[in-house]
């Protein structure tokens, strides 16, 4: 998880379409396994914003073509940014792409 965090943090600093990674923390959950190993939980701390993931926004009959192209171009632009930094997303799917409203307009910005 630490390696994923470092890669994500590097990518988020270098690319405008990547969610900002802030910290990683480990927490003991005070339960022991049968081998007396204390289980730990690891949490990624990321930027907080009012985002909606793509999987919840796709209509049952799909987006109109122009809307789809707008979303696709933004997602591909984000992928290009991280690929330029030698980072591969590795788990691209609608639930890993989020949209936030920009402050200047009623338009959305797509992040991954």
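Q: What amino acid sequence fits the structure above?
A:
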């Amino acid at each position: 998880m630490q390696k994923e965090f470092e890669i994500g943090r590097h990518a988020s600093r270098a690319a405008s379409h990547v969610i900002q990674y802030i910290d990683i923390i480990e927490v003991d959950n005070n339960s022991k396994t049968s081998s007396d190993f204390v289980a730990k939980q690891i949490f990624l701390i990321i930027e907080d914003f009012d985002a909606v993931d793509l999987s919840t926004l796709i209509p049952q009959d799909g987006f109109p073509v122009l809307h789809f192209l707008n979303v696709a171009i933004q997602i591909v632009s984000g992928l290009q940014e991280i690929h330029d930094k030698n980072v591969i997303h590795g788990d691209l799917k609608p639930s890993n792409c989020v949209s936030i409203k920009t402050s200047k307009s009623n338009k959305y910005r797509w992040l991954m």
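Q: And what stands out in the fold?
A: Strands lie at 21-32, 38-46, 52-53, 98-101, 108-111.
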